[in-house]
Amino acid sequence: MLREPAGVVMAPDSAAHTRCWLCWPCRGETWGSAEALMAAKQVTARIARAISAFEPVTLAARSVDIAEAKLATGGKVQIFETALDDSWARDTGPSFLTATDGETAAVQWQFNAWGGKYQPYIHDAGLATHIADAGGWPVFHAPLVCEGGAIHSDGEGTLLTTEQCLINPNRNPGQSRDEVEDWLKRFTGARRVLWLGEGFSDDETDGHVDNIACFAGSGRVIVGVPSSSSLPDAEPVAEAIRRLKLARDAVGRVLEVIELPQPRRVRFDWRGRMMQASYVNFYLANGSIIMPAFDDPNDDKAEAILADLFPGRDILQVEVLDLLQGGGGIHCIALGEPSP
User: Fold this and answer.
1) Residues facing residue 260 across a β-bridge
2) What's the rounded mean pLDDT across residues 100-107?
3) CA–CA separation, 143 vs 109, rounded Å?
4) Exposed, middle or buried by CB within 10 Å (0-12, 13-18, 19+), for 261?
5) Position 33 in a domain
6) Mean pLDDT, range 308-317, rounded to an integer
7) How far is 209 from 181, CA to CA, in rounded Å?
8) How many Å apart are CA 302 and CA 324, to the nearest integer?
């Protein structure tokens, strides 16, 4: 019999954290060269040190990488030795659930390396369970292929995701949107799923929502808006905004949609693909925002908007272009463990 959680809800990013989980980069194929992998490690270390100023950080690393990771992070993190295939803790770590009594539980989604894009992925496919076992939390094994960056929770029963990712044949072939939604509700405690659409230019994750939109508290959603109507994401983002303005959340609120201008400069990664630079891809540490910077004229404009939306939080910008070469940003590598 399938064991499912009850009386729980997926924790929001804004919850107080016991710690942040990160993974030390280790798949050279993701960045294309040893030099690029080293640059990504340096950015990861800067992010780890930035987060550690506000909450404890636990860094998962392979045994062969522990000495390097300790040196790069300057003793600011706790090391969790484990087998890894890649470095995206948000996607392969547990989706944390909070029960009504305050206890923590975890979801282990099925994982197939973003639709079979990389081999091997056996260690990452079990990482959520490994972390949950180490933490002593109940772990629920969902029969749905999903990554943590594909979903975003307001902590009040509303979930954001995209059709492009979760009903993609490379994730859940043969399952309808209604069937996928049912699994999401059963394993996150969501009562309403808000679906954004198709057509996003992110080929690496097939439209992970954490690069497109996120909750900014009750009834508020931030959407990253391309700097030009000629850019590939302009049309799908406009459709996402249209859907959100017509939607209601799990408690019946009309959503306030906040448009966050994206970087002006268009850059391309080592594969020749347009970089998925998004200010939406920030991490809410305790009392702070660790936000991406792209050496772009809109960096400070985005910071001002986020400061307005999250008053009282310190904001640290970390330049992430070298990390972005691998297909993800700060939110993609950082996973908050909610406090009991």
Assistant:
1) 224
2) 91
3) 7
4) middle
5) yes
6) 98
7) 15
8) 18
One-letter amino acid for residue 48 of the chain: A
Q: Which of 140, 130, 60, 148 is nearest to 108 (CA)?
A: 140
CATH number, position 256: 3.75.10.10
Residues 6+ apart with CB under 8 A from 82: 60, 61, 62, 123, 127, 130
Residue 1 included in any domain: no
Radius of gyration of the chain (CA): 18
Total domain count, the chain:
1
| 2 located within any domain | no
Closest among 222, 225, 250, 75 to 156, alpha carbons compared: 250
Task: Say whether pLDDT at 1 is over 60.
Answer: no
pLDDT tens column, 22-46: 999 999 999 999 999 999 999 999 9
Catalogue the E-assigned strands of the chain: 8-10, 17-23, 57-61, 78-81, 95-99, 104-110, 139-145, 152-153, 158-162, 192-196, 213-215, 220-225, 256-261, 283-285, 288-293, 314-319, 335-338
Q: Is 332 a catalytic residue?
A: yes
Where residue 233 falls among pLDDT bands split at 50, 70, 90? very high
- Identify the domain containing residue 123 by its residue range: 9-338
Parallel/antiparallel/unpaired status of strands 95-99 and 213-215: unpaired
For residue 111, CA distances in Å to 94, 115, 127 come to 11, 8, 10
Task: Identify the residue whose tokens are 């087998």.
Answer: 83
The pLDDT value given to residue 2? 66
Is residue 334 one of the residues assigned to a domain? yes
User: Do 4 and 187 form a contact (C-beta atoms < 8 A)?
Assistant: yes
Per residue in 167-200, pLDDT (tens digit) is 999 999 999 999 999 999 999 999 999 999 999 9
Sheet holding 283-285, edge to edge: 283-285, 288-293, 314-319
Q: Which of 151, 84, 133, 83 is nearest to 113 (CA)?
A: 84
